[in-house]
Amino acid sequence: MGHMELEQALHAARALVLADLVAGDVAEADVVSLVEDAVAHRRWWVEQWPEGAGFLPGLIAQDVQDALLERHGRWPLCPVCTDSGDPHALEVEPELGPDPHWACTKQAVLVAPVGSLGSALGG
Ligand SMILES: [Zn+2]
After folding, report:
1. Is the pTM above the cut of 0.85?
2. Number of domains in the chain
């Protein structure tokens, strides 16, 4: 995979994660900068391991999720378990693989592909 393809894969992953942040109304300037940080870090990573390009959306989603947990709290909140008093965050499945989805691990259901959270949230 050439440099151009890697940049396209990074750009696509960035767009997917940003779409999910927009869907959850958390795409503020400081949050977008977290995405840029994650993309920059994963650019280095994928240059070392180009075969992992297909894993970028799931990895960047998890990077942003971790960064948000420290600064803003849980994201994205599970839209399935809205009745329970303690909202939990969705998790990316597979953690390291292609075609990542947001999953509710309590109900063991896939909620939406990474990048399509808006449809699951009714947006
Ligand atoms: Zn849930």
Report:
1. yes
2. 1
